[in-house]
Every structure is written in structure tokens, then in C-alpha cells.
Design a protein that fits this description.
alpha+beta; Beta-Lactamase; five-stranded mixed beta sheet; 15 helices; 12 strands
């Protein structure tokens, strides 16, 4: 896999990600006394001291002989240098300290015989060895620290690259890396599955002329998505080419938009998705591009294709539902106007004529005037019709008696009309809820019962209300014909939008709607809402 600009070359195996140091390399960060070779070196120094002592005895040399005392540097120079080079400052000074300890008998012998020159010569040699070990050890320790820091940085860099590769490859959204010439230089597994494999069908080339195949972006994602991505690449993030928009720096995200949306800060919300077919299923992707690298030939774009299929279809469905709501409101207004014209209005006109007849009764006519009882009957009928209209618009029982009584009334009226058996159960501590929650649940229950009346051919409908401390569960079940949930409801198909409407009502009060149904096994509508109205702002 080839990473985007700024990424490290990928490693081929996990073992290559951790650099190692050979036995002859700079000292490690561990203490020298944890290395057995350090102790072997100290034993060698002890052996050299014993050899010098044996030679002194064998050749009967005076312990304070100046030449013998000056042999300390000659004997221990190499071990001290080896210790400093291999174990750094700590190892070198520790070795000199060990030499000083072994030289204590010589110091004591020189002091015993009053040989000041020999004493100072021995002290001078130990000091010289200490300075030598300090200089060499300090340099070696500094280099070792720099090496350790560089290796730590390299390991962190390799781990970051491996993490990037894992994220890049495991991302479920297709991702493409596009160079300044409009060619795809890298793609993740999701992109290969969505747009085709990264290996093109090309004729085999001669070994000396073989080059990796290059894919044009337009050939991979199509002209529509390629146009907005390449416009973003060329213009530096301003697809409209407007000077006011400016040129964003590398790493600035950009959602591919049309030119008329370039100056609109909410244009990303209205990006028209691009349709593809993935695994035989239609999928809608919205491309989002991010500039990486500097200007010129090094500029590249990382394009992430966000799957907005569900979001787009839900948006379209809600738009259709909103349109149906508006049409429903207009239809309801027309129905109310017609009902008022044909019912109460005609009755009131008839009442006016009866009043006129009553007034004309004072004059001698051959007919009997209407009685006051008949006029009262007419008024009562008019009042009943107006109440019926008001009840259809908003049932007063919901405001007066609450959710339980209103849903029970809906079920009772439905059983009287259709003749199926109804059952209404309430559990928990019954209480009044905020008006928004009660209205939403009432409308959902009303729509569910209406669907059972019109479509289910049910023999029994059961409604359950379960009151909890912080939530309320509404369950409407019928044993009707059911329907196939795998068949998606689409507004363009002209199907009913009752179920999306119920879901939207539940969402507006912070609830969740679940519908379960199978052909021949009835339908269950379940709603779970909080008992407090959420902040809809």
C-alpha cells in the first residue's frame, strides 16, 4: 500500500518495525553491571593486578619503585577505554573506581615507606584514567542517548504508520488518494470493492519497461464525482474559483459541492450524492476531499466517500411526509369547510327559516307555526355536529381525562365500527405526561388502530401502556394479515406514509418506534418515549 503525502513507506513485517542493535554497537540504556561481560572485564583487571604483584615478588622489585608505580596507566589503559566505549560514562568510571580500590595496597605501602613521589604517581595515574574514562564515556553516552532517542522516534513513527495503515484499510468508507495529475495513487479495500480492484486489465509489458498501472480518477469514480474533486485540486479548495473564498491550507476538508453552493456555508449539507452499485445494491456516496501536501506536483487529495444512502432516503421520505402533511392539512380544511357548509350551516339556515315562520305565525295563515321544541331539537343537532367536528380536530378527552382515557376511547370506537375484539391494558403508575408526549402517543396509537381497521383484517387488537419512572412504552398489536418489512416504503411508489409519520412523531419527543410484522402473522407497533419533553431546539 502506498500512503498519502507525509506517510512513511509501509513495512513488510512486524519484525522490521523494531530496530535492533548488535553486540558491538553503542551502549544500551541498561546498567553495565547487568551485563556479564562487564564483570568479566573487572575480573581481567583483577588478574592484571595479581600478575603485576606476582612479577614484583618474582623479580624482587621494591613496591615503591617509581617505574613499577608508573605501570598503572600502561596496564589499565586498554580495559578503561574498552569499558568507556562499551558501557559509557557509568561503566568507565565504575572500572576506574575498581582500579582505585585495587590500588589501595600500593597507596598504603607508599605511605608506609614515606615515598611521596610513588604515592602521588599512583594517584596521578588513577586521576588520568578517570579523566580518560569520563571524556570517552561522556561522548559515548551522549551518542547512545541520541541513538536511543532516534530509535524511539523511528519506532513511534513506524507505529503511527502501521496505525494509519490499519485505519486506512479498515475504514468502511471508500478512500482514494489522488495526485496532482488526477490519477489515483492509492485506495483502500472499501474503495476497491466499491469502484473495482486497484489492478487494471493491462497487457503484460517487457520486464525492463514494466511500470505499475495508473488509473485516472474519472475512470474510477465517474465524471460527476471526478469533476468536483479535480476542481477542488486545481483551485486549491475553491471550486467556484472565487477570490473571496481564498485558498485553504493543506489538510483543509472540503465537501464536493456545485458552484452555486460555493459561498453557502451550509452547502455541505446539500451536496447531491453520487449513485453507485456495490455488490449489486444501489449505494449513494457523498465525496469529501482533503488537501494534503504542498502546492505543485506534490499536492494530493484524500477523497473519502461517505455512505449517505440511508440518510438520503430518510431525508427524501421525510420531505415526502412533510408534503403529505401539508396536503393533509389542506384536505382537512376542505373537508371541514364542506362539512360546515353541508351540515351546521344548512341547519342554521333552516333554523332561520323556522324562526321566520314563527314570526309569521302572528299573521293569520292557514298553517300552524313550528313549536319551540322543534326549534330546540334543531339547535341541539347543530351543536352535536359542531362538537363532532371539534372532536375530529382534537379530542377533548385527551385534554380533560388524559392519554389513557383517550386511547381507550379510540380502541372502543374502532371495535364498535369494525366488530373486532379489543383489549386495553395499563401497567405501572398511571399519571399525566407533558402535552407534547401525550399528543404524540395518542396520534401514533390512533394511526396504528386506523391501519388495523383499514388494512389488517384483524380479529383482535390489543393496546398496552406501561408506565415506568422515566419512560412510557406503548404497544399496539393485531393478529391481521401483516406485511413484508423487507419491501422498503418509498414515497415515489405512492405507498402510505403512515409508518414514517409515526416514526417522525416519536423522534420529535425523543422516543423510538419499532414496527415488527410478517405476512400472515400480524403487526406490532412499539413506542418507547421519555416522560419528559426533550429540548427540540
Amino acid at each position: 500500500m502506498t500512503g498519502p503525502v507525509g506517510a512513511l513507506p509501509p513495512t513488510t513485517s512486524s519484525s522490521a518495525a523494531v530496530p535492533t542493535r548488535g553486540p558491538s554497537g553503542p551502549p544500551s540504556a541498561i546498567a553495565p553491571w547487568t551485563d556479564s561481560q562487564f564483570w568479566i572485564l573487572q575480573v581481567v583487571i583483577l588478574a592484571l593486578v595479581l600478575i603485576r604483584l606476582a612479577m614484583t615478588v618474582s623479580f624482587d622489585l621494591a613496591p615503591t619503585n617509581l617505574v613499577l608505580e608508573l605501570s598503572t596507566i600502561a596496564i589499565f589503559f586498554v580495559p578503561v577505554v574498552i569499558a568507556a566505549l562499551r558501557y559509557g560514562l557509568v561503566g568507565g568510571l565504575a572500572t576506574v573506581a575498581w582500579i582505585a580500590v585495587l590500588s589501595v595496597p600500593g597507596f598504603a605501602e607508599a605511605a608506609k615507606h614515606g615515598d611521596t613521589a610513588a604515592l602521588w604517581a599512583e594517584v596521578f595515574q588513577v586521576v588520568v584514567l578517570a579523566v580518560l574514562a569520563g571524556l570517552i564515556g561522556q561522548r559515548v553516552s551522549a551518542e547512545a542517548t541520541s541513538r536511543d532517542q532516534a530509535e524511539s522516534a523511528l519506532q513511534a513513527r513506524l507505529r503511527a504508520e502501521m496505525l494509519y495503515e490499519d485505519i486506512f484499510e479498515s475504514n468502511r468508507s471508500p478512500i482514494l488518494i489522488v495526485d496532482a495529475d488526477g490519477y489515483v495513487v492509492d485506495s483502500n479495500t472499501s474503495a476497491d470493492r466499491a469502484f473495482g480492484s486497484s489492478t487494471n486489465e493491462v497487457q503484460p509489458l517487457a520486464p525492463e519497461t514494466a511500470v505499475p498501472p495508473r488509473r485516472r480518477l474519472v475512470d474510477v469514480v465517474g465524471p460527476e464525482a471526478a469533476a468536483v474533486v479535480l476542481a477542488h485540486l486545481v483551485s486549491g479548495g475553491d471550486p467556484a474559483g472565487t477570490a473571496s473564498a481564498g485558498t485553504p491550507s493543506a489538510g483543509t476538508p472540503y465537501a464536493a459541492t456545485s458552484s452555486e453552493d460555493a459561498e453557502n456555508p451550509d452547502a455541505e449539507e446539500r451536496v447531491r450524492p453520487v449513485a453507485y452499485e456495490v455488490d449489486g445494491q444501489p449505494v449513494l456516496y457523498r465525496p469529501t476531499a482533503t488537501l494534503v501536501g504542498s502546492t505543485g506536483s506534490d499536492r494530493r487529495v484524500q477523497v473519502i466517500f461517505e455512505d449517505v444512502t440511508t440518510e438520503t432516503r430518510r431525508h427524501d421520505l421525510m420531505e415526502a411526509y412533510a408534503g403529505q402533511v401539508v396536503l393533509g392539512q389542506e384536505e382537512e380544511r376542505r373537508h371541514i369547510a364542506q362539512e360546515l357548509h353541508d351540515g351546521p350551516l344548512q341547519t342554521l339556515i333552516h333554523l332561520c327559516r323556522q324562526i321566520d315562520s314563527l314570526d309569521a305565525a302572528q299573521r293569520p295563515l292557514g298553517t300552524a307555526p313550528p313549536t319551540l321544541a322543534s326549534l330546540r331539537t334543531t339547535v341541539e343537532e347543530t351543536v352535536a355536529e359542531l362538537r363532532s367536528l371539534a372532536k375530529g380536530l382534537r379530542p377533548s378527552v385527551l385534554d380533560d381525562l388524559g392519554l389513557v382515557a383517550s386511547i381507550n376511547q379510540v380502541l372502543t370506537e374502532a371495535t364498535d365500527r369494525q366488530g373486532f375484539q379489543g383489549q386495553f391494558d395499563v401497567s405501572g403508575s398511571e399519571r399525566r405526561l407533558p402535552p407534547a408526549v401525550e399528543l404524540a402517543l395518542f396520534r401514533i396509537a390512533q394511526e396504528a388502530v386506523t391501519n388495523a381497521e383499514r388494512h389488517a383484517t384483524a380479529a383482535q387488537v390489543t393496546i398496552s401502556l406501561e408506565f415506568a419512572d422515566d419512560s412510557l412504552r406503548l404497544l399496539v398489536e393485531d393478529d391481521g394479515v401483516g406485511f413484508d418489512q423487507d419491501h422498503e416504503v418509498r414515497p415515489e411508489d405512492g405507498h402510505s406514509l403512515g409508518l414514517p409519520g409515526m416514526g417522525e412523531r416519536a423522534r420529535l419527543v425523543g422516543g423510538r418506534l419499532k414496527v415488527r410484522s410478517q405476512p400472515g402473522r400480524g403487526t406490532t407497533v412499539e413506542v418507547l418515549v421519555p416522560t419528559k419533553v426533550p429540548d427540540l431546539d
